[in-house]
Fold this sequence. Notes:
The strands form 3 sheets. A 4-stranded mixed sheet has the order 3-4-6-5. The chain has a two-stranded antiparallel sheet with strand order 1-2. The protein has a two-stranded antiparallel ribbon with strand order 7-8. It folds into 2 domains: about 5-65, Winged helix-like DNA-binding domain superfamily/Winged helix DNA-binding domain (Arc Repressor Mutant, subunit A), CATH 1.10.10; about 70-219, no CATH class. By secondary structure, it is α+β, with helices and mostly antiparallel strands. The model is unreliable at about 215-219 (pLDDT under 50). The protein contains 9 helices and 8 strands. Helices cover about 40% and strands about 20% of the residues. It has helices at about 5-15, 25-30, 35-45, 70-80, 85-95, 150-160, 180-190, 195-205, 215-219, and strands spanning about 50-55, 60-65, 85, 105-110, 115, 120-125, 135-140, 145-150.
Amino acid sequence: MAKILNWTYVHKKIKEKNLAVFSPQELVRLFGVTRVAASFFVFRNTEKGLLIRLKKSPKGSLYCLADSMPNKYLIANKLYEPSYVSFDTALSFHNIIPETVYAITSATTRATREFRTTGLLFTYHTVKSSIYTGYSPIKYLNYTILMAEPEKALVDYLYFVDLKKRQLHYERLNLKNIRKTKLLKFATFINRPGVLKLIEGICQSPRPNGRGLSREAEG
């Protein structure tokens, strides 16, 4: 007889495994059930409001527990892999720009895509494999997320400014904790003179006290 998934047991196991985002296939592996049983389970419990479907895809839909909604950065990492949060979103996260950014923007080596889920827009911009670097795993709201380092987030953004896909306002930038040498290192991966020119412009542009590159940051 085929195994039937019990909600109480599954809910407990998902919590124990800290499985914030999962697919039916992961339920197959975790509980030893058939794909049909796993698919029926997620369908039935999504209808009941116990699960939230984050992405619908023939290659693997993604779900989360309704009572344990993962943070938006983790959702961004999981919706489209490989990816890391960068551009405007990471600049806001690191307090390099003052605005709160509502759309979540990430870098990926795959094709550019957009997803709307949980009331948010998740955008993924393609970057070359050679510049898919400069991100690190950090703890955020009890989960590990992949977020661009401050300098890489700025370089990714400047890359898009150079491509005329973004606009740059020098006075918005808080460079207090930005290290110029690290900024230039990431810029060399992109290998675009326009990006280096933008960096020099940023570093030389006057801005309010406490918002420019510090002596320590330049080293």
